[in-house]
């Protein structure tokens, strides 16, 4: 299992003036109620909100989230925007995993009727499954699994193994 994306919110000590950010930072673009940009050297998508928060996407570790946040703050301060980090919140981690067998999703979905699972191949090629821990699994016929909604790493491997065991048990009936 490997992490492929982390989304985090960085709460700052004071609100952002979005017009100031647009005027002072290079390569910014206004989008609805936020200002978006990519800040070197990481070039991860960064969205600034008037509430004094900014969003980081694309990190692969908690340490990278911290590094990117500190880099963003250094960058905006260098360009004359005075603000500091209050705290950082991880909103979502996305992981990838793999079963060691292909899955007939049409057959499997019939066996999962008592679970929060759906499969509509004409709309999306994967089965959507939500577990009792708040995790969402996208399972594809190739056995590839995308796991979203991961806020905490506590018991993650155990939860994913429960899901994989369930799929194995139901698919091999």
Plain-language structure description:
This protein has a ten-stranded antiparallel beta sheet with strand order 2-3-4-5-1-6-10-9-8-7, covered by helices on one side. 27% of the residues lie in helices and 38% in strands. It contains four helices and ten strands, in the order E-H-E-E-E-E-H-E-H-E-E-E-E-H. The protein folds into two domains: 6-91, 2-Layer Sandwich (TATA-Binding Protein), CATH 3.30.310; 99-171, TATA-Binding Protein (2-Layer Sandwich). The radius of gyration is 20 Å and the shape is elongated. 19% of the residues are buried. The chain has helices at 18-24, 62-78, 105-111, 156-171, and strands spanning 2-12, 29-31, 34-38, 45-49, 53-59, 85-98, 116-118, 126-130, 136-140, 144-150. It is α+β, with helices and mostly antiparallel strands and 173 residues long.
Descriptors for this entry?
ten-stranded antiparallel β-sheet, TATA-Binding Protein, 38% strand, alpha+beta, 4 helices, 173 residues
What shape does the CA trace take? elongated
- Approximately what portion of the residues adopt beta-strand conformation? 35-45%
Distance between the termini: 26 Å
CATH architecture descriptor text of the largest domain: 2-Layer Sandwich
What oligomeric state is this? single chain
Domain module count: 2
CATH topology term of the largest domain = TATA-Binding Protein
Number of strands: 10
Give the radius of gyration: 20 Å
The succession of helices and strands, N to C, reads: EHEEEEHEHEEEEH
- Strand order in space, largest sheet: 2-3-4-5-1-6-10-9-8-7
Q: Quick one: biggest sheet? A: 10 strands, antiparallel
* Fraction of helical residues: 25-40%
CATH superfamily of the largest domain: TATA-Binding Protein
Q: Would you state the CATH class of the largest domain?
A: Alpha Beta
Mean pLDDT: 94
